[in-house]
Amino acid sequence: MKNRQIAELFERIADALELKGESVFRINAYRKAGRVLRDLTNDIEELHSEGKLKEIPGIGEGISRKIDEYLTTGKMTKYVEVTAGIGEELLDLLGVQGLGPKTLALAHEKLGVKNLDDLKKVIEDGSLAHLPGMGEKKTENIGKGIDLFEKAKGRIPLGKAVPIALRIVDAMKSRKGLKDISPAGSLRRMAETVGDIDILATGARRSEIMKGFTQLPFVTDILARGSTKGSVMIDDETQVDLRVVKTAAFGAALQYFTGSKAHNVKLRTMARERGLKLSEYGIFKGERRIAGVREEDVYRALGLPWIPPELREDRGEVEAAQSGGLPELVEKEDILGDLHVHSSYSDGNASIEDLAASAKKLGLKYIAICDHSKYAKYAGGIDEETLRRQTKEIDELNEKLKGFRILKGIEIDILRDGSLDFADEILEKLDIVVASIHSGFRQNVTHRMIRAMQNPHVDVICHPTGRLISRREGYEVDIQAVMKAAAETRTALEINAYFDRLDLNDLNAKKAKEMGVKMSIGTDSHSVETLWYVSLGVGVARRGWLEKKDLLNTLKADHLLRRRK
């Protein structure tokens, strides 16, 4: 699949245009094309060969011609034209938080900055701080952005790792001799990023299982292959490691390789206190293995109930298990709706009808269409008249739908004084209002959020810390004060399930629960292909110790509407 490669080309074009100070609308057109291709589950090469490029929602005539050119010739003239004279390493620097395109262009022109090393040097020697409009504070923030930028390199986002792992597991299940298979490592714990993708398997014919793994059709390179350990590249992009263990030790190995390290250290300490030895091969009393086939048996041998993988971070889960206080974690099946979805009315690429049909196929009972309000012009924000047309369409669709409901909503912008983008008489007619900050990240963010929550029509504050995992720490916000106000005003805080946000994160979700705050999962989907992100949101919720009662999405639609402020 070349989806990702072409997406990166469009994103690079957008970066180059931004660096040159081009129109924001041209820039966003290429960013949107990149997002569409990243989210696309179909193979772009197959669609091209079938002449279906123009049928992809969000891909117009101009973009489809560029895709055709690349798949036909291996080149994209527009990319070559736009990036001429701009080095790849310079474009990479646009991913550094705090380093906007204007500052980068100035640093490039005046200081000769071409790459990350150059940028570090001009920060260290003080020359960056002396550029017009800079100063010590801005330079310090860019330095922090570099730290975040470097930490993100080499990490695989959960939203990318999960589909790859499931694809392999599903393909392997049909292999002869396979008894059991499971993802392991931080992926199984649903950590927000993973260092690598680890899979564990067992079966009578271990060498045959390994052979089958290395011969999967989407394996593009075999990095290593032994009888029980192997490593491959998937689609020329991602390394995946498989370990095949004996069935008698599968449960113990799964527990061991799932981790975390701190959780495992605590379990080994407990084992020693009982005169036992715990390892990836099982739990032993002397030379006799007393548990190992199943994970549940490993925990039981230590006097514990099975602890869900998402909790295994040594954050009190062992003590809770000992006292019988483990939470009954929310399950994917408990989620009845998605409370943050964008349609083609704003910057999404799917119709409301298609979004509803796809959500229903995923087992949901409702979705909330929350397109951007008018202030968000960069995201195709809609005005009051467009919102009225949209709500009329939703009413008409709901009359036809059976067993599914579309909620009328808006993602309202919280403006710089804390006021909202639409008047109350507009908001009161909607089923749900989710409010977000999209600009002025360092300007009274806490006050603005609290003021928005005091509006009786605001139900949810979206992506409350504003972080982007790959490149931005987030707003300057007192999240504790926001949580306190959320509890007082009965406003929910969102767990934004978009893979590069996952915001609230697990630690903040746990704290919000302890403060009596309800939460809401929203995929922030802009296409039908990303509605599955609700599973990522559930992963965050489970890591945050959330139960069914802690989430609005577990309510039936009628109950949800009655629960509103």
Primary descriptors:
565 residues; alpha/beta; DNA polymerase, domain 1; Beta Polymerase, domain 3; five-stranded mixed β-sheet; globular; EC 2.7.7.7; DNA_pol_lamdba_lyase_dom_sf; hydrolase
Task: Reconstruct the topology from this structure.
Layout: H1 3-19, H2 24-39, H3 44-49, H4 61-73, H5 77-83, H6 88-92, H7 101-111, H8 116-124, H9 136-152, E1 156-157, H10 158-172, E2 178-183, H11 185-188, E3 193-194, E4 197-203, H12 206-214, E5 219-225, E6 229-234, E7 238-245, H13 250-258, H14 261-273, E8 277-279, E9 282-285, E10 288-291, H15 295-301, H16 317-323, E11 337-341, H17 352-361, E12 366-369, H18 384-400, E13 405-413, H19 424-427, E14 432-436, H20 445-453, E15 460-461, H21 479-489, E16 492-496, H22 506-514, E17 519-522, H23 534-543, H24 557-563
Parallel strand pairs: 4-7, 11-12, 12-13, 13-14, 14-15, 15-16, 16-17
Antiparallel strand pairs: 1-3, 2-4, 5-6, 6-7, 8-9, 9-10
Helix pairs in contact: 1-2, 1-5, 13-15, 20-21, 22-23
Enzyme class: transferase
GO biological process, one term: DNA repair
Organism: candidate division TA06 bacterium
